[in-house]
Amino acid sequence: MAAEQESDRFKPPVDHRWKTPFGNVCDKSGLKITQINDKTTVWSRPLARTWTLMLLLVTCLLYWSRMAMPICAVTMAKEFGWSKTETGIVLGAFFWGYCFTQVLGGHASDRIGGERVLLLSTSSWAVMTAITPLLANIGLQPLVTMTVTRFLLGVMQGVHYPSLVSICAQRVVEGERGFLMSTLACGCYLGMLLVGGVGSLMMDWFGWGSVFYGAGLLAVCWTCCVRKCLLQGPVFSLYSPWSSSSASESSRINWLYLLREPSVWAMIIAHLCFSSTHYTLISWLPTFFKDMFPHAKDWVFNVMPWFVALPTSLFGGSISDHLIRQGCGTASVRKLMQFLAMGVASVFILLLCKTDSFIYAVACVSLAVGLSTFNNSGVSVNVHDQAPSCAGALFGVMNTCSAFTGLLLVYLSGYMIEITGSWVNVFSILALVNVTGVTVFIALGEAKRVDQSQIISTSC
Q1: By three-state DSSP, how is residue 35 classified?
Q2: pTM, full prediction
Q3: All structural domains of the chain
Q4: 72 and 133 Cβ atoms separated by less than 8 Å
Q5: Alpha-carbon span 88 to 115, nearest angstrom
Q6: Residues 382-395, buried b or exposed e (16+ Cβ, 10 A)?
Q7: pLDDT tens column, 26-81
Q8: Which residues, other chains included, contact 385 with Cβ-Cβ below 8 Å and sequence gap of 6+?
Q9: Where are the transmembrane segments (predicted)?
Q10: Cα–Cα distance between 143 and 90 in angstroms, integer?
């Protein structure tokens, strides 16, 4: 009789309730997550749709916050008397901070849950964004305070994408990951459009400070909504059953063995090549259009590529998941998406060197940027396929390296433009880097899980 009572205590919860990543059961919304094993829980479709919408919104706000300083830089430089070099110092400080927390954020997400890390990160950069105009007028040199603020913003936002990768690996089944990551990538493009359109109007009507206030306050509202409606457990608790099992698995990964896998290095190299060329292309496109077409409308080449990127990103995610559900090999689908993102896109990058038509140039750039979004269902998801138990940390390593190589390629491209005065060499190098990366990925890339065999009894 006592044994029966003891077993009743451990019966699973009834169907109308769902267990959160924090170990408690919630029956407020009726949303459920499915327990796949003792380490992984997968969102149900209603909960997945809710989280997808919220993650899309926060990614949009993240890019609004990130791009607020570049949008306001000209106005702020006039107000504070900054030179172009000093303005560059302020803008560049973000990327140095951005490199520091990628691995830490991914590792923390794998251990305690990406939802928690994302919530803490968002609350911190939301407050930092909202108080930026106040810090510019506290009595210290604005150049110093804005450089430090920009650096700290990069530190706080550096964990965002590793957290998303960790969430996707733990909460979404294989046949739906491509669409989720492609949808979340749309938040980047929406954020660029929002800060470029609405942010510019706010700056004209209410001053540059309103751009920062808007992003910060909206992000604070997002944090409050998620904390109240979606996360029911203690945010800072590290001892929930889910996080403990995940931490146990993640901490036993032998990274030396994992990094011996050729498929892992193929993924890393492809990500480095893609990110470096993408950063460089986006950084220098405004200068290219100003040099080649000085009388063209700025908003055309600043807006059109992002309008194209929105539907192509969603299409890429949908078609990749559809192919996998129809029985196509996951590795083949990932390679196809990456070939379109890097190989075919490089053709349109090279065509930029051979046109004197503004419309033709905008079309080439839009197609190159649109095709590049297929990376969201290629290499960006391949990390989930190969190492879901440490996806956040591994993606953090990849993103840190790509940030440094991206900065290097941006600087190298600027030097070449200044010395030669020609864009042909720059675009040719970008195409070469892209082709190199996608060739390695097609030759060595895989989609099989490689972290299971590396889980050993002692931590490396």
Answers
A1: strand
A2: 0.72
A3: 41-247 (1.20.1250.20), 252-460 (1.20.1250.20)
A4: no
A5: 34
A6: bbbbbbbbbbbbbb
A7: 433 444 444 444 445 777 777 778 888 899 999 999 989 988 888 788 788 888 88
A8: 174, 330, 331, 334, 447, 448, 449
A9: 53-76, 88-105, 117-136, 179-199, 205-226, 264-285, 305-324, 336-352, 358-379, 391-417, 423-444
A10: 7
